[in-house]
Amino acid sequence: MSVTPYVVYMPEDFVLYLNAKNAPADFQPYPPDWPDPGARAFIHFGCYRDLVGQFAFNFRIDSTLTFAMGMPKDLLFSLEQPSYALLSTTIHEGFHQYQRTHLGEIPWAREERYPILDVENTALASLEMQILKGAVKAMFQGNDQQMEALLKEFTAVRSYRWKQSHPFVRKYEQSQEINEGSARYVEMKAMDCFLKLDSTRISNQLFRDIRQELSGISIQTLLLDDMNARLSGMAVPPSDMLRNRIYPLGAALGFLLDRLGVDWKMKFQAAGAEISFPGLLEEHFKLDSTQMANWAARAKTDFLYPAIRSAAQTLIDVYLTEYQNALEQFNRQPGIRMAIHLTNSGIQRFRSTRNKKWVVENGKKLLCLHYNLYSLKSLKKKRLRLEIHDRGVLDENNWQNRRKTVTFYTAQIRSLMLDGKPVEGELNTEQKFTRIKIEGHHFQLEAHTKGAIQYKKNAIIINLE
Fold it and tell me: Which of 43, 55, 410, 411 has the least C-beta neighbours within 10 A?
């Protein structure tokens, strides 16, 4: 990223193009009275193309394919350390762009289908997290013997969990640990290097300001805090089982494998269906089936597994109760209820929020009461673009028919165009179209596909083919 061109932007304010040789169309030189970014930069003021606060990969500027990293302003500045968040997230997303062109094929599995309400799977995954916390502490204390013993426990528990779970669990976690886990490792490794730099020997004021803001942070604190944030007491809550726990787990495993001297990065770069963190550990320690069983039993004793399982069951029960309360709150909202029915094939989704999300019915329903940004767009031909800002969204999926329904509320409809012609007044009957553009309070939808729209008792239903 010190030489590769990339984009960092603030929605509606400006777009920075860094490490660029020449200014693209609609860009101008970086303001000389702004802080020195330490790289050649050009700027575009205001909105730019379809960048509305999402991360965009393979984003084309002139002949260059790169990534664009942005965050909704209200989300960014609600964080305790916005400079750290922007720096670390840019590194993380930049590595994802690198993965797209330099890593082998990463197995993929749809996250909503992950069994977050399975008590045994949740309890064992929580046990793994507790073991890794101990291994990270031992690593920083220089206690390699204890670190290796804990890693053997982790390997044994993970092996057991994957063998007794549905094959989907292994496929999903393997792909996420290669993809998101290694990206978090790169993010943390870069921050480790950044924190070790001597700020007194670097004249760049922007660097010095950021380094001062991060003066109380260490890599040990970052790793352990990241893991603790995914635990609620002894167990991982359902809302963090899908993806959030995988970030710190992958980062920790990367640092631990470095300490063991395992050449995992080249193997991860090749990717493929067999490579995984626990597989590399099993290969390194050369554990047989009897040893694995013994280490797993020891882990359950050392970390009070029955208590972890009980905590996991309680968290799942609370989660389901909270979901019912949240759904009632969602359905009580005033305004116009919007329901958009569309295909879930060939659609890219981006969601930005700090709020809790509920996934129920084996991934068929996903509810969040506030997204800073929820967006959908077609991967090809730009047939669809949906943006929802600062709203709650209910996402319902029909996997068999490859269809989904996106439901939210809006205070008003500002404009509606069907087949390029404005529609005035209320819709009393169903109207068909080949193109639709509709804008309202906090949302806009544009689709170049056949469909129909109808209005029913403070609800607008849009069916897209």
Answer: 411
Strands 459-464 and 336-343: parallel
Instruction: Determine phi and psi for 73, rounding to 5 degrees.
Output: -60, -40
Asked whether 121 and 115 are in contact (CB, 8 A), the reply is: yes
Half-sphere exposure of 403 (CA within 13 A, CB side): 9
Nearest one of 120, 107, 368 to 239, comparing CA atoms = 368
Kind of pairing between the strands at 14-18 and 28-29: unpaired
Closest CA to 257 of 277, 274, 282: 277
Distance (Å, whole) CA 444 – CA 74: 19
Q: Hey, is 23 helix, strand or coil?
A: coil
Residue 388 exposed, middle or buried by CB count within 10 Å (0-12, 13-18, 19+)? buried
Any bridge partners for residue 459, and if so which? 337
DSSP per-residue string spanning 216-231: T--HHHHHHHHHHTT-
Q: Which SS3 state, helix, strand or coil, does residue 354 take? A: coil
What are the per-10-residue average pLDDT scores of the chain (465 residues)?
87 91 91 89 92 87 88 80 84 88 70 89 98 97 98 97 93 89 92 81 74 81 94 95 92 96 86 82 94 96 98 97 98 96 89 91 92 89 89 93 95 94 81 95 95 91 95
Give backbone dihedrals phi and psi of 440, rounded to 5 degrees, phi first. -145, -170
Do 162 and 267 meet the contact criterion of CB atoms below 8 Å apart?
Answer: no
Beta strands (DSSP E) in 155-228 are none
Judge residue 164's burial from the number of C-beta atoms within 10 Å of its C-beta, 0-12 exposed, 13-18 middle, 19 or more buried. exposed
